């Protein structure tokens, strides 16, 4: 009993759970109405309240447990709270208002349930092995600290806030850490892909391996955990596995007591459950169909519960919350709602050099969301604008620059460059200062190229190109005219050529990486740049770029050619135009089975099934695969057909085996992706029955060997090929054709066919690269072969797999749904 | 009056992609953006009837796969020099499920 309150009627309050939410409830009660309640506090953990969100600094060794305790034994004693730590509640008897633990019953007048949440454990084989832990409380943290040995391997499953904090903490303890994340980018609930990319880069820089789009299949080990296996076949060795894939409200005792429970314990605005004598607070509750995991709304709830317990009117109104990652050196901030939506607009700022990204989402005259990485100093100010619903229309132009810029004059970039002192560095790669560029200009270098040649400024990575141009403009005044090279699209000022060069120079391997590092001015690109970027990445980093399936044009996504009515045409490969009775039977059977309205021979010597419905694609592919056939890629920006004539095998004029060479070429080149479609022809003699001299690459067999010619066209433009070289053997044909295709793949602008590529670079340059320079030819051919080691595969097999098929069906069928 | 029907989990729609819902009035394309906003539009470009669900999604716009007309998914209006409009439907996400307002689709059928 509390001294001085003995004469007051005290109510019996029982609190189940000593976490951060109930801790705050008790604080409010003790300050606002000391002695109003006789409090009994149960906690399943054998300790009182500590600041759970500071477990990460404890894990990393930056703090100790003692430093994060919020209420120590003295505090509980001073408040006269009867602490039952380490006792779990087994039952609530609502009729008699008694809660039972293993140790017996305690009566209550009012009851607060604050059981928090339990970590979600993915039900994979091996989840119960020793060495697999969740990350929720101090015991988990201590288990992880005990297991952390320098050089040992840890796998963290889950790339959300908690998982990344665990990963960073374990890395600081010297472990080799791998993070497996199911989604395409880290912290996808708080960050957009650009910020997620920067975060990933920062974590990788400190040695943490990140595996996105990774689905855990099983945890391996006999006596204890040894490795983690993913669906894609990857296996990571592991001495410790941390599961941090999410939490679910802990509602068991509420459910057993027949309180209303949805995903969490259902509460009203006063945080009362369906029983008016019982309140619930924290991560275990569901309010207005929402769950809560961050601390700010939990503290709001605590204030409301305390008021409500004391009989005051109070209502919980969820407000926007802000997130920060507690990993030293990774500055990120996200607040509000940054999803795209009708009527919403974005303001994006990127500073690739400093690794800064900021994005504001505006609706009407209000700021509704903010994501920032690298420079989060203004996060609090933006968060205030979001919470207060401030009208930002007057400061919209300079909003992204933060509070310091409000009310000031609008910045003129040229004035800023003019104000730079001569020793200011312009080009970081080559250490070129402004003064050196100005003297080069004054000495007659009046174009960007001339400045590049003389000073080396902007000649390496090129990100300072804009700055060099501004120096030119400031120095020369009106005499300088910006070069009008066509940018790739409206999302960037870079040309296709610059983008290709920078992807290589900077080692960029995903679309968000390109958009961030090259300063894209749109949020997610457009229908023009996205397929191009996806191709450039594939071409430069065939083994380890991040593919963006949704950036592919429909034909390359569905591996069939879309027709005017939305149906597709399907063309199985027919190597060199040769088929068999079995293949023809399989094609005929498929045409019957799927009611194909038209079966047609194409101009490329194959059979086209026109009018196939999207839903039928996986099944028809499976049938063709079963008959030994693969996709003809008749839809792709890639190798399509190799047209042949019969050659020396049957023809009385044929000089070489043109059919055999065509098959050999097709088997070598198939599956490869190129900037635009590529078609080949091989004719057995100069009569040219395969019409090889109007193909992208044509080979004409002659008595002495093979004439290889390139850059023909028979489309919008009609053009005869030009002779690249004449060689004596089939093997030389194979090597030169692969090298030339690779030259085209690595250097052409997306959607330019070979004849446009050759017109731009010149036939002589191509000859120098693949004919004269033997080392270069071999290197090109080797890079082509490396790429083919992964792309010479049939896309149909993957998409026709039974578990993939549902994706090809409508999401729902309401056509038979009754009208009201 | 609105009538929301649960048409499936959000996760069944790829980010920056779409799935269709079949109705007696034709297909409705349900899109999901990179940041999980959802939109529902008639799956038919007013130009030549192209299936918008197979277009490339960028931001809150979609480009028709047949002739590259671009539509604002929020309003259904064609962008740029093109003129045209696609019908839109209310759609929202609750507890990871996609709810589509089918009142218009089903009423028109009854009429």
From TrEMBL, chain A:
Pathway: Nitrogen metabolism; nitrate reduction (assimilation). Residues 12-289 form the FAD/NAD(P)-binding domain. Siroheme binds at residue 689. Binds 1 [4Fe-4S] cluster per subunit. Binds 1 siroheme per subunit. [4Fe-4S] cluster binds at residues 645, 651, 685, 689. One of its GO terms (molecular function) is metal ion binding. Residues 426-473, 488-537 form the BFD-like [2Fe-2S]-binding domain. NCBIfam families: nitri_red_nirB (TIGR02374). This is Nitrite reductase large subunit NirB.
UniProtKB/TrEMBL annotation, chain B:
Pfam families: Rieske_2 (PF13806). InterPro entries: Rieske-like_NirD, Rieske_2Fe-2S, Rieske_2Fe-2S_sf. Residues 5-100 form the Rieske domain. It comes from the Bacteria. The lineage of its organism: Bacteria, Pseudomonadati, Pseudomonadota, Alphaproteobacteria, Rhodobacterales. GO terms for biological process: nitrate assimilation. Keywords: 2Fe-2S, Iron, Iron-sulfur, Metal-binding, Nitrate assimilation, Oxidoreductase. The keyword Cytoplasm does not apply. SUPFAM superfamilies: ISP domain. The gene is nirD. This is Nitrite reductase small subunit NirD. GO terms for molecular function: 2 iron, 2 sulfur cluster binding; metal ion binding; nitrite reductase [NAD(P)H] activity.
């Amino acid at each position: 009993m509390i001294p001085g309150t003995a004469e007051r009627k005290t109510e019996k309050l029982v609190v189940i759970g000593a976490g951060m939410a109930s801790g705050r409830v008790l604080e409010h009660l003790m300050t606002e109405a000391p002695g109003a309640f006789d409090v009994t506090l149960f906690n399943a953990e054998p300790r009182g309240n500590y600041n759970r969100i500071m477990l990460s600094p404890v894990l990393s060794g930056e703090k100790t447990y003692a430093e994060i305790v919020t209420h120590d034994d003295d505090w509980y004693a001073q408040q006269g709270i009867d602490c039952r730590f380490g006792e779990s509640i087994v039952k609530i008897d609502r009729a008699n208002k008694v809660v039972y633990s293993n140790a017996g019953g305690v009566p209550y007048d009012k009851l607060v349930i604050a059981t928090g949440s339990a970590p979600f454990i993915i039900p994979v084989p091996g989840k119960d092995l020793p060495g697999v832990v969740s990350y929720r409380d101090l015991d988990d943290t201590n288990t992880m600290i005990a297991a952390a040995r320098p050089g040992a391997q840890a796998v963290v499953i889950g790339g959300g806030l908690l998982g990344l904090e665990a990963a960073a903490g374990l890395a600081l303890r010297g472990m080799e850490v791998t993070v497996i994340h199911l989604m395409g980018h880290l912290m996808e609930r708080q960050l957009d892909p650009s910020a997620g990319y920067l975060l990933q880069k920062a974590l990788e820089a400190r040695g943490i391996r990140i595996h996105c789009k990774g689905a855990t299949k099983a945890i391996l080990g006999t006596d204890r955990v040894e490795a983690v296996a993913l669906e894609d076949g990857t296996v990571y060795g592991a001495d410790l596995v941390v599961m941090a894939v999410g939490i679910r409200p802990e509602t068991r005792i509420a459910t057993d007591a027949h309180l209303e429970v949805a995903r969490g314990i259902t509460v009203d605005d006063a945080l009362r459950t369906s029983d008016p004598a019982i309140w619930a607070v924290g991560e275990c509750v569901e309010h207005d169909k929402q769950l809560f995991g961050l601390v700010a709304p939990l503290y709001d709830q605590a204030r409301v519960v305390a008021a409500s317990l004391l009989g005051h009117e109070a209502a919980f109104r969820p407000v926007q919350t802000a997130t920060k990652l507690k990993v030293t050196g990774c500055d990120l901030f996200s607040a509000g709602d940054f999803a795209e939506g009708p009527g919403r607009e974005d303001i994006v700022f990127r500073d690739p050099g400093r690794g800064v990204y900021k994005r504001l989402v505006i609706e009407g005259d209000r700021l509704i969301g903010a994501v920032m990485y690298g420079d989060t100093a203004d996060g609090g100010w933006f968060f205030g604008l979001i919470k207060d619903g401030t009208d930002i229309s007057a400061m919209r132009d300079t909003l992204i620059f933060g509070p310091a810029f409000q009310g000031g004059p609008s910045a003129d970039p040229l004035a800023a460059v003019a104000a730079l002192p001569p020793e200011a560095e312009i080009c970081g790669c080559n250490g070129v200062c402004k003064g050196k560029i100005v003297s080069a200009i004054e000495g007659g270098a009046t174009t960007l190229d001339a400045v590049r040649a003389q000073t080396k400024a902007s000649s390496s990575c090129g990100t300072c190109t804009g700055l060099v141009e501004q120096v030119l403009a400031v120095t020369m005044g009106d005499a300088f005219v910006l070069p009008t090279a066509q940018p790739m699209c409206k999302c960037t000022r870079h040309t296709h050529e610059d983008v290709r060069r920078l992807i290589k120079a900077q080692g960029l391997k995903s679309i968000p990486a390109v958009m961030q590092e090259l300063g894209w001015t749109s949020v997610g690109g457009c229908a023009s740049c996205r397929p191009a970027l996806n191709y450039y990445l594939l071409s430069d980093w065939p083994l380890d770029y991040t593919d963006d399936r949704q950036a592919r044009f429909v034909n390359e996504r569905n591996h069939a050619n879309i027709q005017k009515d939305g149906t597709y045409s399907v063309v199985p490969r027919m190597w060199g135009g040769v088929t068999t009775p079995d293949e023809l039977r399989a094609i005929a059977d498929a045409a019957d089975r799927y009611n194909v309205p038209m079966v047609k021979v194409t101009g490329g010597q194959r059979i086209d099934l026109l009018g196939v419905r999207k839903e039928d694609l996986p099944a028809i592919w499976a049938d063709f695969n079963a008959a030994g056939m693969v996709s003809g890629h008749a839809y792709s920006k890639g190798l399509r057909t190799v047209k042949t004539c019969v050659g020396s095998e049957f023809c009385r004029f044929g000089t070489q085996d043109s059919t055999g060479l065509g098959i050999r070429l097709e088997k070598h080149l198939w599956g490869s992706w190129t900037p635009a479609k590529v078609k080949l022809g091989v004719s057995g003699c100069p009569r040219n029955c395969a019409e090889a001299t109007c193909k992208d690459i044509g080979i004409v067999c002659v008595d002495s060997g093979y004439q290889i010619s390139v850059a023909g066209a028979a489309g919008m433009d009609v053009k005869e090929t030009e002779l690249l070289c004449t060689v004596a053997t089939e093997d030389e044909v194979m090597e030169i054709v692969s090298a030339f295709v690779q030259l085209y793949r690595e250097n052409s602008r997306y959607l330019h066919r070979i004849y446009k590529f050759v017109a731009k670079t010149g036939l002589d340059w191509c000859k120098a690269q693949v004919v004269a320079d033997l080392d270069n030819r071999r290197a090109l051919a080797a890079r082509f072969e490396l790429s083919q080691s992964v792309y010479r595969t049939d896309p149909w097999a993957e998409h026709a797999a039974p578990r993939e098929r549902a994706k090809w069906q409508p999401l729902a069928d309401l056509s038979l749904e009754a009208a009201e | 009056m609105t009538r929301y029907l649960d048409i499936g989990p959000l996760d069944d729609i790829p980010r920056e992609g779409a799935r269709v819902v079949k109705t007696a009035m034709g297909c409705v394309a349900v899109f999901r953006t990179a940041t999980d906003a959802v939109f529902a539009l008639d799956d038919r470009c007013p130009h030549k009837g192209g299936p918008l669900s197979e277009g490339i999604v960028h931001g809150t716009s979609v480009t028709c796969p047949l002739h590259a007309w671009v539509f604002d998914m929020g309003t259904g209006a064609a962008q740029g020099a093109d003129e045209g409009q696609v019908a839109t439907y209310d759609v929202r996400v609750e507890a990871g499920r996609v709810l589509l307002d089918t009142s218009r689709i089903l009423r028109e059928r009854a009429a």
